């Protein structure tokens, strides 16, 4: 489409882990009054996030469900981590990450969204997991994700966005070696030269559009964004 897909409403960015860490280092001490910032748990501990966001701080989010704590309109940034070929090592990596992600999720549950026994049960779960240091969980999650970053191409031939849940969306590491410019609106941006394999890993048959009735931006009943001057 050379721009935003008409029925989509967000932008996701992926980058190799080394570049991702470098970006986080650059913005780690960014001035708190800057309008645009890279936001993650490292520089904004109050934000419960496993990835980073390029955030517009002139906006604010009204999160009806209180399930997420984004601070405004943002772009998701995902690191690409090396995944080993060995099935057992791959399974261990995914299992460890899943356990840590589950711990983060259980720490952030909101009992007030439930009633009766469910509310009581979730309060107990939240109290138990609140005893675990949040910083230590995020540090461990990052360390586990980078377990195989020094594997050679032959030993670990794939990279993946290790996001929570879903199938492993991995693709060949050689794709990271070649980039080219793509037109996006009135601008041009760098992207993978071989875009087909990552897109098929993430979306399957991405060239088949959804049914006509679904070709529109879906309105969210849960999240609304405002400019802070208008709140």
What does this structure look like?
Strands 1, 2, 3, 5, 6 and 7 form a 6-stranded mixed beta sheet that branches. The chain has a two-stranded antiparallel ribbon with strand order 4-10. It is built from 5 helices and 10 strands; from the N terminus they run βαββββαααββββαβ. Residues 65-69 have low confidence and may be disordered. The longest helix has 21 residues, at 87-107. It has 231 residues and is of the alpha+beta class. A hairpin with a 2-residue loop joins strand 8 and strand 9. Helix 2 crosses helix 3 and helix 2 (87-107) packs antiparallel against helix 4 (134-145). The protein is globular.
Distance between the termini: 34 Å
For the sheet with most strands, the description reads:
6 strands, mixed
Beta-strand portion reads 15-25%
Protein structure class: alpha+beta
Entry summary:
The protein has helices spanning 17-27, 87-107, 116-130, 134-145, 196-203, and strands spanning 12-16, 36-39, 52-56, 59-63, 74-83, 158-160, 170-172, 179-184, 187-192, 223-227.
């Amino acid at each position: 489409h050379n721009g935003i897909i008409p029925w989509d409403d967000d932008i996701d960015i992926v980058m190799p882990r080394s570049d991702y860490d470098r970006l986080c280092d650059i913005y780690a001490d960014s001035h708190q009054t800057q309008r645009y910032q890279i936001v993650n748990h490292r520089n904004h501990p109050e934000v419960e996030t496993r990835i980073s966001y390029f955030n517009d701080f002139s906006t604010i989010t009204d999160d009806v469900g209180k399930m997420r704590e984004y601070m405004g309109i943002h772009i998701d940034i995902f690191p690409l981590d090396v995944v080993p070929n060995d099935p057992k090592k791959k399974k261990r990596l995914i299992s460890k990450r899943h356990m840590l992600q589950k711990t983060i999720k259980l720490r952030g549950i909101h009992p007030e969204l439930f009633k009766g026994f469910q509310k009581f049960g979730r309060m107990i779960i939240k109290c138990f997991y609140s005893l675990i240091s949040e910083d230590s969980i995020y540090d461990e999650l990052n360390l586990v994700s980078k377990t195989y970053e020094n594997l050679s191409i032959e030993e670990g031939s794939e990279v993946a966005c290790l996001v929570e849940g879903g199938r492993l969306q991995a693709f060949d590491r050689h794709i990271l070696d070649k980039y080219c410019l793509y037109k996006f609106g009135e601008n041009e941006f760098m992207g993978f030269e071989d875009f087909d394999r990552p897109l098929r890993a993430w979306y399957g048959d991405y060239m088949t559009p959804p049914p006509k009735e679904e070709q529109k931006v879906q309105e969210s009943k849960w999240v609304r964004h405002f400019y802070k001057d208008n709140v």
